[in-house]
Design brief:
- The complex is a heterodimer of chains A (317) and B (268).
- Chain A is α/β, with parallel strands linked by helices and 317 residues long.
- Chain A folds into 2 domains: 2-168, Thiamin diphosphate (ThDP)-binding fold, Pyr/PP domains (Rossmann fold, 3-Layer(aba) Sandwich); 191-316, Rossmann fold (3-Layer(aba) Sandwich), CATH 3.40.50.
- Chain A contains 12 helices and 12 strands.
- In chain A, the strands form 2 sheets. Chain A has a 7-stranded mixed beta sheet, with helices on both faces. Chain A has a 5-stranded mixed beta sheet with strand order 7-9-8-11-12, with helices on both faces.
- In chain A, helix 1 runs parallel beside helix 7, helix 3 (62-74) runs parallel beside helix 5 (93-102) and helix 8 crosses helix 12.
- Chain A is globular and about 55 Å long.
- Chain B is of the alpha/beta class and 268 residues long.
- Chain B has 11 helices and 5 strands.
- Chain B has helices at residues 3-24, 32-36, 38-48, 72-81, 87-91, 122-135, 154-165, 186-189, 195-201, 214-222, 258-266, and strands at residues 63-66, 142-147, 171-177, 205-210, 230-235.
- Chain B has a 5-stranded parallel beta sheet with strand order 1-2-3-5-4, sandwiched between helices.
- Classes of the chains: A alpha/beta (317), B alpha/beta (268).
- The interface between A and B is medium-sized, with 28 and 27 residues.
- The complex binds thiamine diphosphate and magnesium ion.
- Thiamine diphosphate sits between chains B (32-33, 36, 68, 70-71, 117-120, 147-150, 176, 178, 180-182, 238, 252) and A (37, 60, 87, 91).
């Protein structure tokens, strides 16, 4: 497994998705993957060639993609649909609402290259609105795996899960390893990946790497951070949030998403119903479209760089 | 039209595309679909579009909308050729805080009308602009460039229907028919069958041309029609102009290394 963890992280989430899909279809001939002219970008070229009967490309037509997938699902197939995150979510939002949310046809959607990783392609290709949009649709769960290994664990559970799931992939090739050892993964249950006692940093996706690095450097200043991998945004792990609020005086959420509608909002909603609440700072895209540029450039602009996370902790502690 | 001049314009667009893609290095660039549409851009920018560098936002200017936004290198290169942007600007392609990202970002001050890149949106915008021109009794024309793969999108056909319905004879729909999309041939991903007859049945005056024949492009863009939008299916070759790229869809989105760059310049 540890060899896989290294290999997968160098491949990144998308290529790993393709490899896992091959593994899944061998165990489950009932699986169909649907895409919109992105086989290569999703690491699915081998899948497409080896399992043509389990692969359907509907062309560059994402609204159609969701409808076709829901129809297949209604006939008993296990369906994973995939394309780039903006096209997998916002482009076909109403199809998701009616076909998956309202009628509860169950599929698993994989949004490729979400967040800020495609920053030099501009904001048509960045995705900082996907979670907020889908979170408001009933019967859709949302999971943001922190690294390719977690994606592996997630995909193995996603198909038999009770709801449709949106799986949001962040970072590019050479993604960071967040989980270097096997651990217990359950949809809806956050994981404490670093134990501290002063501040709680809650994040998800590959940006957790920056959270861990920030925590490491803060330790040298005698501030001990807890870092929590809140991979599932919906349903949110309320117990984790309540626990964090009771035992700390500062929570910081870190996300590659608009701070409206995403992880920070989900945590804030739980806190607002608690008596023993604590201060919350939401780091992420502060509700504006920045100029374009590299992944690091955008992370810095949106306060998600290691330095900026440290600065935020120091100035609010 | 001065054929020699337009030819040179096209050649320079191709050189700029390759120059910029090479500069982008590992950030990579959409190359095949920029080269296939280069001759169409050459005719438009050298002979057709009424745009004035000094009054780039003139309300009477012709509007060009690159709906297949990933081919932005063709647009940027044409703008550079018109000296609306500089060669130095091209060097900032896809870098931090650049005006010239991997898809066009709306910037009317340098002649970029709309932000495109999410396929299937440009024609609707063009229709809105064309209707506005009629309402305001303006003479300008609207040119929208679509990819053939892009024509998989339902939204394209919603807008084509609309263009015919509103009899937009100030609207030119140009399809870069290079027979490939992102992961293969149109035929194998989603067969478009007869595009021209589709546009015709949706109410357009249709033309099918060789999208690399400058004279033919020019002539078609000058034909008069009444009460109908024009749809021009321009048959092209993806990667046109660089032999090793032609019809090889690996160059849809790729990296031009130093070695490749030297080689292709020799054989351009
Ligand atoms: C809505 C949307 N879906 C998917 C994509 C990803 N994508 C970018 S280019 C492309 C292929 C486009 O093919 P075509 O229009 O034929 O362009 P060309 O061959 O001229 O490059 C795809 C699927 C996108 N940019 N937008
Ligand atoms: Mg094409």
């Amino acid at each position: 497994m540890e060899k896989n963890i290294k290999l997968w992280s160098s491949l990144g989430m998308r290529a790993t998705f393709g490899l896992i899909a091959l593994d899944l279809v061998k165990k489950n001939p009932n699986l169909i993957i649907t895409t919109s002219d992105v086989s290569t970008s999703a690491g699915l070229d081998r899948f497409k060639n080896q399992f043509p009967e389990n692969y359907i490309d509907v062309g560059i037509a994402e609204q159609n993609l969701i409808g076709v997938s829901a129809g297949l699902s209604s006939e008993g197939y296990d369906v994973i649909s995939t394309t780039f995150s903006p096209f997998q979510t916002l482009r076909c939002c109403e199809q998701i609402k009616v076909n998956l949310g309202y009628m509860k046809n169950k599929i698993c959607m994989v949004g490729l290259a979400s967040g800020l990783v495609l920053g030099n392609l501009g904001f048509t290709h960045c995705s900082i609105e996907d979670i907020g949009t889908l979170r408001s649709i009933p019967n859709i769960s949302i999971v943001v795996p922190s690294d390719p290994f977690e994606l592996y664990k997630l995909l193995n559970k996603a198909i038999s899960y009770e709801d449709s799931i949106y799986i949001r992939l962040t970072s590019g090739a050479n993604s960071k390893i967040i989980n270097s050892k096997d651990y217990d993964f359950k949809i809806g249950k956050a994981v404490e990946i670093l134990k501290g006692e002063d501040v709680v940093i809650i994040g998800n996706g590959n940006i957790l790497h920056n959270c861990l690095e920030a925590a490491k450097q803060l330790k040298e200043k005698e501030i001990n951070c807890t870092v929590i991998n809140c991979h599932t945004i919906k349903p949110i792990d309320k117990d984790m949030v309540k626990d964090a609020a009771e035992n700390n005086r500062l929570i910081i959420t870190v996300e590659e998403h608009n701070i409206i509608g995403g992880l920070g909002s989900a945590v804030a909603e739980v806190l607002s119903e608690e008596k023993n609440s604590c201060k919350l700072i939401r780091l992420g895209a502060n509700d504006f479209y920045s100029s374009g540029g590299s992944y690091d450039y955008l992370k810095n602009i949106y306060g998600l760089s290691i330095e900026k996370i440290i600065k935020t902790v120091l100035s609010n502690f | 039209m001065n054929l020699k001049k337009t030819k040179l314009f096209a050649e320079n667009i191709r050189k700029n595309i390759l120059f910029t893609a090479h500069k982008a290095g590992s950030k990579s660039a959409h190359i095949g679909g920029a080269l296939s549409v280069a001759d169409i851009f050459a005719v438009l920018y050298s002979d057709i579009l009424r745009i004035n560098k000094k009054k780039i936002q003139d309300e009477n200017r012709d509007r060009l909308i690159l709906s297949k936004g990933h081919a932005c290198l063709a647009l940027y290169s044409a703008l550079a050729q018109k000296k609306i942007i500089s060669k130095k600007d091209l060097e900032t392609f896809e870098s931090d805080d650049s005006n010239l990202l991997g898809h066009p970002i709306m910037n009317k001050s340098i002649g970029i009308e709309f932000s495109t890149g999410s396929l299937g949106m440009g024609l609707s915008l063009g229709i809105g602009v064309a209707i506005a021109a009629k309402k305001k009794k303006k003479k300008f024309k609207v040119f929208v460039i679509l990819g053939d793969g892009e024509c998989n999108e339902g939204s394209v056909w919603e807008s084509v229907l609309c263009a015919g319905h509103f009899k937009l004879d100030n609207l030119f729909i140009i399809v870069d028919r290079n027979n490939f999309q992102q992961t293969g041939e149109n035929k194998s991903i989603m067969d478009l069958k007869n595009l021209k007859s589709k546009f015709k049945s949706f109410g357009c005056e249709t033309f099918e041309i060789n999208g690399h024949n400058l004279k033919e492009i020019y002539k078609t863009l000058n034909l008069k029609t009444k009460n109908k939008p024009r749809a021009i299916v321009a048959n092209t070759i993806k990667g046109k102009g660089v032999q090793m790229f032609e019809k090889d869809n690996n160059w849809h989105h790729s990296i031009i290394t130093n070695t490749t760059y030297k080689n292709i310049l020799k054989n351009l």
